[in-house]
Automatic annotation (TrEMBL):
It comes from the Bacteria. InterPro entries: Metal_resp_DNA-bind_regulator, Tscrpt_reg_PadR_N, WH-like_DNA-bd_sf, WH_DNA-bd_sf. Residues 16-87 form the Transcription regulator PadR N-terminal domain. It comes from Paracholeplasma manati. Signal peptide: none annotated. PANTHER family: PADR-FAMILY TRANSCRIPTIONAL REGULATOR, TRANSCRIPTIONAL REGULATOR RV3488. This is PadR family transcriptional regulator.
Amino acid sequence: MANKAQIIKGFLEGFVLEVLSKEPLFTHEIIERLDTMGYKNLSEGTIYPLMLRLEAQSFIVYTKVPNPLGPMKKRYEITKDGFEELANIKAIWAEFRTISDDILGGK
């Protein structure tokens, strides 16, 4: 049986870049946005390593923002390289969707 969670997790990078393409967000806001869009039960343990990878690849940057309740918070935004990566992900998705529709009979 296919593991739905693993299949969806493979698209998480694109999902995060997509929500950041709209506006800068804090990590908890990214999780909330994805939850409202249908990506349920995304944990901080999953999102934080991804944010570090995206930052290391120069796809996102962050600004530290004061937090009255504790340490500074990071507000993430997508970079020019991140927009290019998002376009690549969307192109790959379109190709994958066409192939899967042809093979699995989606159309």
